[in-house]
Amino acid sequence: MARLRAMATWLAREPLVHFLALGAVIFAVHALLNPAAVSDERRIVVGASDVARLRDLAVQQWGRTPDARQMEDLIGAYVREEVLYRAALAKGLDRDDVIVRRRLAQKMEFLAHEAVRAPDEGELRAYFAEHAARFARPATVDFEQRYFNPERRGAAASADAEAALARLRQGQRAESDNSMLAQRLSAQERATIVRDFGDAVADAVFSLPVGSWSGPTRSNFGVYLLRVVARQPAAAAPFAAVRERVASELLNARVAAARDAAYAKLLAEYSVVLPTQQAALARP
User: Fold this and answer.
1) First to last CA, the chain
2) Which of 65, 117, 164, 179 is within CB 3.0–4.6 Å of 147 for a Cys-Cys bond?
3) pLDDT band for position 279 (50/70/90)?
4) Where are the domains of the chain?
5) Residue pLDDT, tens place only, 113-169
6) Would the pLDDT of 10 be above 50?
7) pTM of the shown model
8) pLDDT category of residue 112 using cuts at 50, 70 and 90
């Protein structure tokens, strides 16, 4: 009995209880005075599960449990959002908003993800063995470069590079232009070289003989002299080194398959009429 009295005392003092009770009273009086005005579409019920969800979200965001006043604010914000959301739907605002359409379509696709099971170790290893080439370490090259800027040297850039090449081959120092990139680079993959120097330089450093200066090689970025120091061929990667990549790729593949299967199932329920003439596509 003492415990019941203590609980009753706590409930009487708890602001959140007062807030919910007041809301219930207002709703009941309104329903009594306007019985036809309150329908399922016009009822917003904030239940215990809603309160728990709002509290959990607050804990995740704030790192602490909200107090009673903060919970009142959270519930009030939830009710406000629900009222505005329903009013927007009633006005059909969702039908003409591209962003809303895309967001709803994305949420439908996300529903298909829930049933996707994470792969186990055996499945990961099987996927790795089937796609070993995809996870192989790419070929790399160590090389030196000297840059000649056409914007600074104009038409003389290639001739200046050839003169510098002769000096470099004789073991002498040769003047070149400053670059944002180092003159010696190590373990460079082809994609990185293409990004920084262009395709012509990438082709050259993976085909030129090792140890001697060559050029000039012209790319979209300028004129280069190149000396390949070493090349490392592509090599198979051990499973342990790429396990996280394998897991991510396999899971993504399963998610994509589940999404496509869910879409195909939904599409089968519709009859889609497409324009049959190119003129129809171009018509405004």
Assistant:
1) 77
2) 179
3) low
4) 2-96, 105-133+240-284, 137-232
5) 777 888 999 999 999 999 888 898 899 999 999 999 998 889 899 999 999 999 999
6) no
7) 0.50
8) confident
Q: What would you measure as the largest C-alpha separation in the chain, in angstroms? A: 103
Paired tokens of 96: 């003409």
